[in-house]
Design brief:
This protein has 117 residues and is mostly helical. 53% of the residues lie in helices and 11% in strands. The protein is globular. GO terms for molecular function: DNA binding.
Length: 117
């Protein structure tokens, strides 16, 4: 089965993976929960290319996970703010923190509870 066929299945897991099941998207969402909103902050923290970050943020806006809010009008600069739909991902991320702390070599994070911005 090809990936595109999997994402078109009538399955909540497959449809969810079509939105945030790639290498960077959940890390972008995680960073939003700890207070990041600006493109340059996401890029500096994650170290991904501008092109990849722009594509992921665009998809998250399109899917209603983030909304773009202008913070400088004349230069078209935007902040990416979690919507209600995006904030509902918090329990999923918290369970991933618990699972990862238990079953991987990752250290327990200092910030165990994610903010809701």
């Amino acid at each position: 089965m090809k990936w595109i066929e999997a994402t078109e299945q009538n399955c909540p897991i497959a449809q969810s993976l079509a939105i945030f099941g790639d290498r960077w998207t959940l890390l972008i969402i995680r960073n939003a929960f700890v207070g990041m909103t600006r493109f340059e902050h996401f890029q500096k923290n994650l170290g991904l290319t501008r092109h990849v970050l722009a594509e992921r943020l665009s998809r998250l806006v399109e899917q209603g996970i983030f909304e773009k809010q202008a913070y400088i009008d004349r230069q078209q600069r935007y902040e990416y703010v979690l919507t209600a739909k995006g904030r509902e991902l918090k329990p999923i991320l918290m369970e991933m923190v618990k699972w990862g702390s238990k079953w991987t070599d990752a250290d327990q994070p200092d910030l165990v509870e994610l903010k809701v911005i």
